[in-house]
Description:
Number of strands: 11
CATH class of the largest domain: Alpha Beta
Radius of gyration: 21 Å
Mean pLDDT: 93
Number of helices: 14
Number of domains: 2
Distance between the termini: 10 Å
Structural class: alpha/beta
Low-confidence stretches: 160-164
Largest sheet: 6 strands, parallel
CATH topology of the largest domain: Rossmann fold
Strand content: 5-15%
CATH architecture of the largest domain: 3-Layer(aba) Sandwich
Order of helices and strands: EHEHEHEHEHEEEHHEHHHHHHEHE
Amino acid sequence: MNWNLDADSRPICILGLGLIGGSLMRDLAAAGRGVFGWNRSEKTVHAAQRDGFNVSEDLQATLERAEASDALVVLCVPVPALPTMLEALKEHAPSVGFTDVTSVKAEVHALVDQYGLTDRFVGGHPMAGTADSGWSVTLKGLFQGAVWVVTYDNAVSLGDADSSGSRWVDTWVRVVCMAQLVGADVVPSISRRHDGSVARISHLPHVLAEALAMAGDAGGPLALTLAASSFRDGTRVAGTAPELVRAMCENNRSSLLTALDETLEILHSAREALADDSRDLRELAAEGHAARGRFEARAGRNKGDQTNRPIIRVRPGAPGWVEQLESAESMGAQISIF
Length: 338
């Protein structure tokens, strides 16, 4: 199939207008793409309407509009709210393709499968955000230069023979194009591999930030007065709403436990070294510095720096495209489609 990416004018429907959903709406509108949405909070709906956006607090009507216009639906709600959204999708928008933005993917894929909606679902996770939440903190450009993970579990199950003209591939392409339209770099991943990776670089940092914030606070007023950039940077994500931290970490327990156990071993070794005057922290400091260097070599030293990720061009549905996605995932490469 030839994908005429510029000719696709179908709208995008966003369910949930918090930081991610609201910022996505702002960026899509700024890019000239038709976008409308829903939020359960009347206050949020009115605020978005005052800012000139087409949003409603009527979920059924919003989904019926999505069905009629063949919109791509983006679920920007927390994991606990997904069953309600999936039930509504099944009833009021029975043919639309949809994606999500949650920070776990295997559990969401399994939930979607329970509702019989797997053939039109593509998992997504933009690696962007702040410690704030709600419409009032939404902003343009949140996704510029950020990685947006797009899952391809269903491409593996379809295989080349069945995927060239499938509805699912059409949805997958639309998700990739949406992410690229708002400035993100798309990286493909199988859901369980995604969860294992984000446990280490997203969920574990939240656990460590909470612990570090508590350790600093235990030092009393003087410690907090002396705290500077290393403490501020190390505890930044501890400013995230506690219920959001719980949701992301508790929904990825197995992978997070593995990462946490490995980290506790490193910390225990550091403690043993400090407790023994004949030993030092040379190994920890050297290996940690080297690991940070490898991250900077790929992602840049500062946020917004030019990255050194490889780029792989993919033709969705063409013979061998799944192998291309697997290769991109193994290298942490971003993709472009043609």
